[in-house]
Amino acid sequence: MPGPSLRQKHAHHAIHEGGLSGAVAKTEEVEELLHMKEFEVARQAADHLIEYWETRIISHADAEEDGFYQEMAEQNPQLQEAVVRLARDHELLRMIVKDVKALLAQEGLTPEVLHQFHALLVVNAIHSRDEERLLFGQA
Q: What span, in angstroms and rounded, lies between the C-alpha atoms of 78 and 84?
């Protein structure tokens, strides 16, 4: 059952903003460490960034899919298609995180890994904006 903050427009927005700002800060930290040629510490920061995506962003997505989206679609059946699209966004985030983990394990902290971290930021920002607009009527 979804928690009350998922149902409240401002609280839900705050969850999105907090999650995204944390991911941006952690991504910038990885980049700064690389710039400073602190390669081992940068790799550790990249591992922490993946953990952040899994425990903060994707766990929020799981909570949304575990009842909240269905609840919103039941209240307004016209939202069913939007809910399917929003769930697909979550799947894209999961796929990118999985790919980043594999790339890190196989090749280390490469420019492609950084590109994928930025892709996560873009997908998440677009998803959150669309979710708030579609489910709460907020631009």
A: 11
pTM of the predicted model as reported, rounded to 2 decimal places: 0.92
If one counts every other C-beta atom within 10 angstroms of the C-beta of residue 109, the result is 21
pLDDT tens column, 4-44: 667 788 889 999 999 999 999 999 999 999 999 999 999 99
CA nearest 62: which of 33, 27, 103, 19? 19
User: Residue 107: in which H helix or E strand, if any?
Assistant: helix 80-107
Q: Which residues have CB under 8 Å from 105's CB, separation 6+? A: none
For the chain, how many residues are written? 139
Q: In angstroms, how far is CA 4 from the centroid of its own chain? A: 20
